[in-house]
Amino acid sequence: MAKEKFRWTQLKRLVFVTGRPNIGKTSVLRQAVSILETDGYTIGGMISREVRDQGVRVGFEIVNLITQQKGWLAHIKQPRGPRIGKYRVNMNDLNVIGATSILEATSGADVIVIDEIGGMELRSAEFRKAADSAVNSSKPVIGALHSTIRDPLIDSIRSSSDAEILEVTVENRGSLHTVIVDRVAQFLARS
Asked: What is the pLDDT of residue 190?
C-alpha cells in the first residue's frame, strides 16, 4: 500500500483503526502499544483478545494495560448479560476492569487505549461514559472501532476533526502499527 494513503494535514489526537472482523485490529494496536512502551510512554486503558479452546473461539478477554488485571468481556458460557450472537457480555468485568481501566488512563497514562468500541462494549453505560471521557480528554487515544455499527459515540468519533480513522487491511496490517506510533509520538512531542 502506498504511503501516501496515510498522509494528514494536521496532527490528530484520536487515532482509531477499523476493518472487518478478524483482520488484525487488536494485533495492530498491541504492536503499537509495545513500541510506545519501549519508547518510554505510559500506556493505559484496555485491550481485548479472543480466547480459543481447541481451536474454537469461546470468548473475549479484556486486560487493564496498567494493572494487567484480566476479565471476560464475553464468553459462550457466561450465564448472564446481554447476548451478542453466541456470547453473553460479562457486564461486571466490562464495568470493573474495562471502564475503570479507561478512566484510570485518563489521569495516569500518556496514551489511552480503547480496544474496541463495538457492540459488546457499548452495552455498558459505564464503558460508554469512560470512552467518552477519554475521547474528550486532552490525551492521545488509540483504539479500534467496529466497522459497521452506527452509534452516537462511534459516529461522533468518526466525524471529529480531531480523529483519524485508519482501515486495517491484509496489505497494511503488518506495518500499520508504525503509522500509529508515528502519529502518537509526533502529537506528544508537540503537546
From this structure: 84
